[in-house]
């Protein structure tokens, strides 16, 4: 994953995974959440998703949740992951505000 933690820029996939894990979910439920929220515009394969989950867990942004002996391993976002997601949301708001000022003014 090519997330730029210095500037706060996350990949779209990473941001959606973090958002999905504000409620504990197993991998397939994460895929369904992302497909639903993007109305099918973003579809993740199992390999991509599980690679991303492993990477996010190593970064400390997500953690296993609940009964670790269950067949379907669930994850949830950590406080550090929430901080990262909130910074990305602020960055995106700033981007939209700048674009709105430029594009909105161009058509008046």
Molecular structure report:
With 108 residues, the protein is mainly alpha-helical. It contains four helices and three strands; from the N terminus they run H-E-H-H-E-E-H. The chain has a three-stranded antiparallel sheet. The longest helix has 28 residues, at 79-106.
Structure described in brief:
The protein is mainly α and 108 residues long. It is 57% helix and 9% strand.
* Rg from Cα: 16 Å
* Rough outline: globular
Give the strand line-up of the largest sheet: 1-3-2
Output the number of helix runs. 4
Order of SSEs? HEHHEEH
Secondary-structure content class: mainly alpha
What separation lies between the terminal Cα atoms?
40 Å
Low-confidence stretches: none
Major β-sheet annotation: 3 strands, antiparallel
Strand content: 5-15%
Total DSSP E strands: 3
From the structure above, extract its key features.
single chain; 108 residues; mainly alpha
Topology:
Elements: H1 12-20, E1 25-26, H2 27-37, H3 46-59, E2 62-65, E3 74-77, H4 79-106
Antiparallel strand pairs: 1-3, 2-3
Helix pairs in contact: 1-2, 2-3
């Amino acid at each position: 994953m090519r997330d730029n933690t210095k500037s706060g820029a996350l990949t779209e996939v990473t941001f959606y995974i973090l958002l999905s894990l504000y409620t504990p979910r197993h991998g397939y439920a994460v895929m369904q959440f992302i497909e639903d929220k993007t109305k099918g515009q973003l579809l993740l394969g199992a390999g991509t998703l599980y690679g991303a989950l492993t990477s996010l867990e190593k970064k400390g942004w997500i953690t296993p949740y609940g009964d670790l002996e269950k067949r379907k391993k669930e994850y949830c976002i950590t406080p550090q992951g929430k901080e990262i997601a909130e910074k990305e949301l602020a960055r995106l708001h700033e981007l939209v505000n700048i674009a709105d000022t430029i594009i909105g003014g161009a058509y008046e």
